[in-house]
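Dear colleague,

Following up on yesterday's call, I've attached the two folding results inline so they're easy to grep. Please treat them as preliminary; we haven't cross-checked anything against experimental data yet. The first protein's sequence and structure tokens come first.
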Amino acid sequence: MGRTEGGGCYRYVNSVLTRIMDTISTNHQVVLMDIEAGLEHISRRTDRDVDTMIIVTDPSLMELKTAKRIRDLLREVHVDVREVYLIGNCCSEETEELVRDWATRIGVKYAGALSYDANVAEFNLKGIPLPKLPSNSLSVIAARRIANTIGLI
């Protein structure tokens, strides 16, 4: 998303980002934005005209409530999103079921979950880029399944 230029205000940064995204999205079929956790980008409409929004949540009540708040805020500020998906992160089989149920409860689609993957932890600690994970890594397998569910592959 960028950083503030001072005083804690992101208005200028958000307006620049919005203009950049408008330009990029006309020239590319897929544009992927990885936005830090929080709601400001939605209320500032930085992510307007989104086809697919993916909300990634840890299996905790606070995170799940934040996912619901994101869904609510999209409606409140009239961000036109065609599809909203919920993805669980660091889930066990039991918590994955809770995340799936929560997606249904708040009216978004469930795309899948990533379980804890020791390879990811090791790569993060060693500073190895995650795209270098082996193809048999739990996270890579789950990410492919999720991308297929969403229609990215």
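Below is the second protein, in the same order (sequence, then structure):
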Amino acid sequence: MAHSPPLAYHDPGFMDSDEGRPVRIVSEYLAPLRTFSAEYITATVVFFGSARASSAGVLGRYFDEATELARLVTEWSRSLPGGGERLVVCSGGGPGIMEAANRGAALAGGRSIGLNIGLPQEQRPNRFITPGLSFEFHYFFMRKLWFAHLAHALVAFPGGFGTLDELFEILTLAQTRKLDRSIPVLLYGSSYWNEVVNFEALVRHGTIAAADLELFSFVDDPEAALGLLKSRIELPPESARAPCFARSRVPGR
């Protein structure tokens, strides 16, 4: 008796093929959306930073302070009117600063998200991500979409190519006013950022406007960072139970 062929979406040969790529891309959008909706995740504070940081290494200060800031943010979120967690810490899910952020949220008794991506080295989900809120991505652009989609603030700690890529993605969206809400951006570690990126030179060469320097702020300690976040974050409504997306601004409005 002839066997029936598998349904296309049950066929690994098709799903892993070039023709199956659009299905894989859509899956990396819909699977997190399903979970965030079921878990009543409405908004995030995103932490970026080096996967190579550790409490004992040269970036040890930043590892410890990322942990503390994530703890403070989570405690603040849990104290807001409406109950639950209106802001959830979100990291790239791996080691280093990412692990520190997830760890800080766990220390405060809160949930946190890890948007991990499979890489040959460095990137494995850390153990402090809340069970059920760890996601594995293949496509960088889909991972970055989810960073931006729910972000109500971004804190960028010292990092390398990946951190710079993610940071400038958000700054570009803000500069071009592609989003219908403001996303405060904090650059944690002013000495690092001012050495690594010469923002003033970009203005001097005319490649950005002087006003673009107002898209971000430098911070150097967890308490100051928390104060800025409290004053600048657009909180989701108390009644919100579904993801509060940063929607695209309609051209001309």
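For the second protein, one point worth flagging: The radius of gyration is 19 Å.

Best wishes,
A.L.
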